[in-house]
Amino acid sequence: MISGIDISGIDASRPQWFFDFVSPFSYLLLEQRDKWPSFDFVPCPVLLVDLYRHWGQPLGGAVPAKRIFTYRHALFRADQLGIPFKMPPAHPFDSTRAMLLAIAAGGEFACVREIFRFIWREGRDPSTEEGFEQLCERVGIAHGEALIEEESVRAQLRRNTNDAIAMGVFGVPTFWMNKQLFWGEDALPMVLYCARTPNWLDSREVKRISSLPSGIGKPNAQ
């Protein structure tokens, strides 16, 4: 759908896949979609920066050594998986316009994949004027700049992010399956296992570790 988007909340009864185009690991996971469980996942764009702010996590580039390792790890995983990979010219970048474009385009996996490939396979920056114009051409959307200014489109991205937070989503990529969260590109084996053996999450040890008390008290406690 290109216009007249109905603002709607996330249907938590359906499997979801949460992503942000700023995440190289979201790209790498989508490129492995042929390995995903046969659930009908709904692609759901959310703003990673807002997830971090809500949960009090430092932004991705805040720790220099972690930033370097993250980029090396993404490249290493791409090499391992045989997935073409090229970092955009600057990172992190503002992914908001690309996220809004995906919503305006209807949020289908085919469009989402093309946007990811524009950024992470070709190394483009969708946050610049030129980059965003080229991205719109790539996905075949005219007047993209005007579309992403529609309040219904912007409201949908806010709603997605707020609903994801209410569901406990704290990062991307994240699968929501059987009302459970699975975070990270490297969580795919766990997703596949739990799709085949959903009762594992109800096992005694999983339940025990899922409700462990903290041994250091609340943060900033005196």
What do the pLDDT scores average to?
93
CATH H-level superfamily? Glutaredoxin
CA-based shape: globular
Q: Write out the strand line-up for the largest beta sheet, numbering strands in chain order.
A: 2-1-3-4
For the termini, the CA-CA separation is 53 Å
Q: Might you state the CATH topology name?
A: Glutaredoxin
Helix content: 40-55%
Which percent band covers the strand fraction? 5-15%
What features would you describe in this structure?
This protein is α+β, with helices and mostly antiparallel strands and 222 residues long. It has one domain: Glutaredoxin (3-Layer(aba) Sandwich). 45% of the residues lie in helices and 7% in strands. A 4-stranded mixed β-sheet has the order 2-1-3-4, with helices on both faces. It is globular and about 55 Å long. Residues 1-5 have low confidence and may be disordered.
Structural features:
222 residues, Glutaredoxin, alpha+beta, 4 strands, four-stranded mixed β-sheet, 10 helices, 7% strand
Q: What's the gist of this structure?
A:
This protein is of the alpha+beta class.
How are the SSEs placed, and which strands pair?
Elements lengths: L15 E4 L4 H7 L11 E4 L2 H8 L8 H18 L14 H9 L4 H12 L8 H11 L4 H4 L3 H16 L7 E4 L2 E4 L4 H9 L7 H7 L12
Parallel strand pairs: 1-2
Antiparallel strand pairs: 1-3, 3-4
